Amino acid sequence: MSWRRGAAGDDGARGAAFEPFFKGANRGTAALGRPLSVVAALTAGLEDVIAAANKNRGGAAAHEGPADDNNGFLVLPGRDGRPLEGHWGGLLGGRYSFRRLIGVGTFAQIIEAEDTLSHAEPKKRVALKVTRAGMQGVGMQESRLLSFLSRCPGFQGANIVQAHSAFALGEHWCMVMELLPGSLPDLTRQIRPFSLPTSCMRKLAMQLLVSLSFLSSQGVIHADIRQENVLLRDFSAGKRGHGRAPSLKVKLSDLGNSFSVSESGAYHDDFELQTLAYRAPEVLYGLPFDTQIDMWSLGCLLVEVYIGRRLFDAFNRSSAVATMAKTLGPIPRERFSSGRFYPVLSSLPVYGTLSLNDNGKHSSSSYSQPLKPRYTISNKKKTSFFFLYSYFI
Fold this sequence. Notes:
This protein is an alpha+beta fold. The protein is 31% helix and 15% strand. Helix 8 runs antiparallel to helix 10 (292-307).
């Protein structure tokens, strides 16, 4: 049976109550007496109904955006005593119910939320990454990158956090991601003053190496490898005498600062990338770089987890070079002398003046207090920065 518009004389027969629905139904084809499509018939007058509903809600209120604090972060329940308000009706994206704030970073909040459309009981929990107001571009870039990587062969085994969907919320960008039970800093704080067992260190190193290998194969530089961006999938300490070995499974997260190798030239003006304590020497000195800078950051992370403190705890570029030279030994002139920042870094006072002579040896000025090594490395093991790599792997 086909749906047709009645003749002009049929208006009274069908009743005035149905008139709004027929007014909105496929005006072009109805005028010619053609059958209406099923979709047009079922949605007839829907635009008028929505317009009337918006009018009843009040024009200004219908376009309210989310409430932000002075730093551009979303105001959440429990913060300043203000509830979630706005046109989404208390649900983020019209779907996700706020449960708790997991953490706050420089550019985004991480929120645990409940998917109200989930058919599971209890409702499925997800992690929402909500960028600061005005930072939608950063969030959209990360969404596009995760979407691209998820379609690449090997992604499922690459130990990289998965994103399910994304949506805009006022001036914020929200990414719906898998919810994981914690982060690597949570674990290290939990087991203090002890370090991770050697078997767990090996597993941590191998899983993150798999992640970096996958990113490198796709020509992607993560550019922000640090403890906070390593999330826990599972951790079990094991039990002595029961034959249960410690278990550790992790995933790499936060690709908001990531970019392709072909885009690295955009950073050649200031070389401001990577967290300072994990910044590779070629970035510090202002030399061309590629995916290998992530390997340096991973080495710093592994040593940090193992010894319980940062290997290079610096506050600026020059102090990072100074602590690096004092801990690892002389920085070779021939490798870094062509760097953009080499003339400055070879002479600036950092806890005293650190300079490189023609033999690649560093010296401090007589008026300064020399740096003290963070820990002692035997001459036998001091031949390579990655001596712990071979130990862990």
